[in-house]
Design goal:
263 residues, TIM Barrel, 10 strands, alpha/beta, two-stranded antiparallel ribbon, binds indole-3-glycerol phosphate, 13 helices, 17% strand
Length: 263
């Protein structure tokens, strides 16, 4: 079994080293200062989940396991359609090498709507948090499987210092325990194991019962229908991160509305 996550993070470390050499921290700070303040990511999810479901709709062109997902890829149009369809937040893939993402996609999507946006990428260095804010991101992702405890804490501190939210991604009970040593109470369970890409909803069901009260709990990956959301809701989960199944629909506004309401 190949461990794709290790490979991706190795590539990312090289990429970050090159970026750091090309861009000073003061330039990043200056760019961050030009951005509008962070939009409350967790708050938007919690508000939506109080009366329905909190949906993080993902702008995803391609993935390592599925290849190209969307040919007429248009981040600002997708952002507006997701917002009109009732999404609470956006997720935008910015990793170039494995997901055909780009920083420009995040900037274009965020400018096109009022939703908070998470930068979906592989963070291996706190420097990337400032970089994320410099392109407008409101939240960042911390993948527990990819990091040591001390690295996670550094990355989270950087996010908090910039007023951003951090979504802490886990996929087993041990990772959840490590996640709960951090300050953030925004926890995502990835139903897809990034080490081998298998999807299993039971990962979420098992962990939701172990999360303390007061956590915002997000089920991620492999969700395709309103029925899936209702099944998750039976287990007490009200927030979701959905990419591929939405991105494959021609009418994203209708698809988002249908996912959330069944209509
Ligand atoms: O396209 P899906 O199956 O709906 O999954 C979305 C999202 O969960 C997935 O893109 C994701 C979750 N965690 C990640 C970490 C890195 C890259 C991608 C991801």
């Amino acid at each position: 079994m190949t461990n794709k996550l290790i490979e991706i993070c190795e590539t990312k470390r090289h990429e970050v080293a090159a970026r750091k050499a090309a861009m000073t921290v003061s330039t990043l700070h200056a760019r961050a200062a030009e951005q509008t303040p962070p939009r409350g990511f967790r708050k938007a999810l919690d508000d939506a989940a109080r009366s329905g479901f909190g949906l993080i709709a993902e702008i995803k062109k391609a993935s390592p396991s599925k290849g190209l997902i969307r040919t007429d890829f248009d981040p600002p149009a997708h952002a507006q359609a997701y917002a009109a369809g009732g999404a609470a937040c956006l997720s935008v893939l910015t990793d170039h090498s494995y997901f055909q993402g780009h920083e420009d996609f995040l900037m274009a999507a965020r400018s096109a709507c009022a939703l908070p946006v998470i930068r979906k990428d592989f963070l291996v260095d706190p420097w990337q948090v400032l970089e994320s804010r410099s392109i407008g991101a409101d939240a960042i992702l911390i993948i527990v499987a990819a990091l040591e405890d001390s690295q996670m804490a550094e990355i989270e501190d950087a996010a908090i210092g910039l007023g951003m939210d951090a979504l802490i991604e886990v996929h087993d009970a041990h990772e959840l325990e490590r996640a709960l040593k951090l300050q953030s109470r925004l926890i995502g369970v990835n139903n897809r194991d990034l080490r081998d890409f298998t999807v299993d909803f039971a990962r979420t069901y098992e962990l939701v019962d172990k999360a303390p009260k007061g956590c915002t709990f997000v089920a991620e990956s492999g969700l395709g229908s309103h029925a899936d959301l209702l099944t998750m809701a039976d287990h007490g989960v009200r927030c979701f991160l959905v990419g591929e199944s939405l991105m494959r629909q021609a009418d994203l506004e209708a698809a988002t509305h249908n996912l959330l309401t069944g209509e």
